[in-house]
Structures are given as structure tokens and as C-alpha cells.
Amino acid sequence: MATKRTLDTKSTEEQTTGESKTKKVKISLDSSTGSLTKENVDKSDQSSKKVAKQNEITCKNKEEKDDRMDDHTMTAITIKIGMNETSTYKYVDTKDKFIEVIKELQEMIKIKQMIAVDCEGVDLSRFGSVTLINIGTRDLVYLIDILKIGNSVFDDGLRTILEDSGIEKLMFDCREDADALLHLHKVKLDGVLDVQILEVSNRVHIYRNGYTKIRSLKHCLEEYVNDNTLLNIKLQGRSSMNMSSKIWEKRPLDENMLKYASVDILGLFKLYDALRTRMSHSVWKAASSRYCDTTRSRNRMYRDGSGILPKGVII
């Protein structure tokens, strides 16, 4: 039977990159072969591995903490919307962020700041989905991700804002938004000031006995708002939408789509400034209310949107 006999144990020092580290070298004799073997025990090496392991655990804990903080922290993204003009949007994708947003919105409403609302979705109507609700002021837009947070947003404060007739909300062609909100989420949109009604108001009197075509937001921005920066952001978003009909259900949302959603809100304020004197406030609000009802109040078999202003909206 082969045995090992210890001949000597000694300490040696090695110089490595300017540092001395001590190794214990155990020398043994293998009786079967007569050869010497070395067994190195590097205490310094063991200590380094222990420190490295501890650092790894610390880094992992920090990353997990950062991830938890991200769930509660909204990043404000600044975008250029004009030659010398910027605005900000915040993407809201967790319930904790949403609760914070509702408090901020309530404060804005309390001090009478005007707000604007827009919905995004796939086949936006009772036949499709609402995946994003955008709501904000001239300076700050909240992009509320309904797809990620869920329907709880309505019971946690959003329903109150959307249904309150006293909280006036700028919108543009509110018909399908109102239809989707009512039939998919039991939210009866009210308090709307539809900017599309302002734009068509001058032309409806010319064609009172015929059909009055309504114009898209892009068309109106091109005609009434001198802002190529804003329009370019819309064009980039529209290009992405043309490549995928379900882009509003894609997660994570592309930055171009977040900007697109934001400038739709910001564009409403610019249009409002350009067209606000076309109708008295009371007539405009009443016409907007009728506009909301034209689609959501009737039976529909499919998404049958029309490019013609419904009769009876502007009296």
C-alpha cells in the first residue's frame, strides 16, 4: 500500500506585482514512487476569494434594491417640441407610480390648470382595446399604461377625473375614446372640450345642408400650428404604427411611441390657443358633449368610423 511521509513544511515568500503574499508549501514523499509532491495552501488567495464573494453579494443586493426603487420612481423625460420649447413626460407603468400621479393631477385640477386627455389602443373602440391613457398639462404629460397596471386605475381615481363634467378636458375627436371607455371600462367620459369641433365650426355653416368633412390632428397642426419639431415626432410615430397595427400592445413601448403619445397632448394645447375664439365656451362644451354621445350611444356591429361630422352636433 502506497503511503505518503511528510518530510518538511516551510514558508516561502513570492513577490507578485509589488505585493508580498505568503504561501505554505507542504512537501510529501510518495513511498510507492519515491517522488516528492507539493501541496500549496494560499491563505492570502482564500481571503481574496472571500472578499470577492462578499463584493458579489453586495452588488447583487444593490441591483435588487435599484430594481425596487425603479418600481416607485418615475423618470421625467424632456422632449423638444419647438424651436425654443421643451416639455416633459412621465411613463407610468406601476400602481405605486399611478397613485403618486393621481395626487399630482388632483393638485393641478385644484388650482384650475387645464388638462388634456387622449387614449391609445388597438382598434380603439368597443371592438378593440385601450392600452394607454395620456393625460397632462402644457408642461407635463403622464402616459398611464393600462395594459401593465390594469383596470384598477379607474377605481383608484382616474374614473372620477374622466367622468366629472366640472373637470374640463381638451380632446380631439373624442368619439372612439368615449366608445371604448364606456363599453370596455364602464367609464362615461364627460367634461370634454373637443378641439376638432372648434376647427370644423367655421366650415359647418358653409355646408349646413350637406356633409362637412372633419380633419385629422396632423392636418390641423400643419394648418394652424407652426411647429415642425412636433410634427416630425408625430411622423416618426406614425411610421412605426404603419409597420405594426398592434404596436400599442407591444411592451416595452418604443421611445418614439412614448414621444408620439406625448405630443398628441401637447398639440391639443397649441391648437386650442389658435382656435379658442371660434365658439363661445358654453356652445363648444355642449357640442362636445353631443359629439361624445354620437358613437357610444348607438348599436354597432363593427368599427365604423366616419370622416363626416355627424348632424346635430353643432347647433
TrEMBL record:
Residue ranges, annotated region (Disordered): 1-55
InterPro entries on file: 3'-5'_exonuclease_dom, piRNA_biogenesis_EXD1, RNaseH-like_sf, RNaseH_sf
GO MF: 3'-5' exonuclease activity; nucleic acid binding
Protein keywords: Exonuclease, Hydrolase, Nuclease
Domain 3'-5' exonuclease: 89-280
Any single biological process term in GO: piRNA processing
GO CC list: PET complex
Polar residues compositional bias, start-end: 29-38
Keyword Nucleus: no
Protein name: Exonuclease 3'-5' domain-containing protein 1
Record organism: Mytilus galloprovincialis (Mediterranean mussel)
